[in-house]
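The material for today's practical consists of a large collection of protein records. Backbone structure tokens are a discrete shorthand for how the chain folds in space. An example says more than a description, so a record of this kind follows:
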Amino acid sequence: MSTENLSNKEGVKKLKELAEKARICLFCTNLDEQPVSTRPMSLQEVDEEGNLWFISSKESNKNFDIKADKKVQLFFSNNSDSEYLSVYGDAYIYTDQATIDEKWSAFAKPWFDEGKEDPAVSIIRVQPSESYYWDTKAGKMVSILSFAFAVIAGKETDNSDGIEGKIKI
């Protein structure tokens, strides 16, 4: 497995690619307590600065946790392509209608009876401070074929297809 650390525009591009492809993450709060509070969340978008945006209820435990401690960690997993992403950063809650209008998605409607005008709607922005990814250089299928060939040929596998690294934004 090789290491490739990314920063600035390359880092944002990789973060956006992996997070938006996976779409669902485990959103963790109360990082200093055991067990860590974790719940699945659907990502709305990753913006050009690398911020991750979510829609949440003002009354959720997650929002209460963020108000007490803004440190969060997100875990994205795209098993079908062997892509994984860990994001650690600070979460900020927005309740102004302009931000809600901008970030609203029809997919959130089942959780909010009144749609984007529901008084319980809030938007969460996660600003990454540390991120780490695991990926394959050539994609999962090529990795599987390479592994299968090594097994059939009775040779050691070539671990050079795996790639991991830090993302600095």
Observations:
- DSSP finds four helices and ten strands in the chain.
- Residues 2-168 form a domain with the Pnp Oxidase; Chain A fold (CATH 2.30.110.10).
- Confidence is low (pLDDT under 50) at residues 140-150.
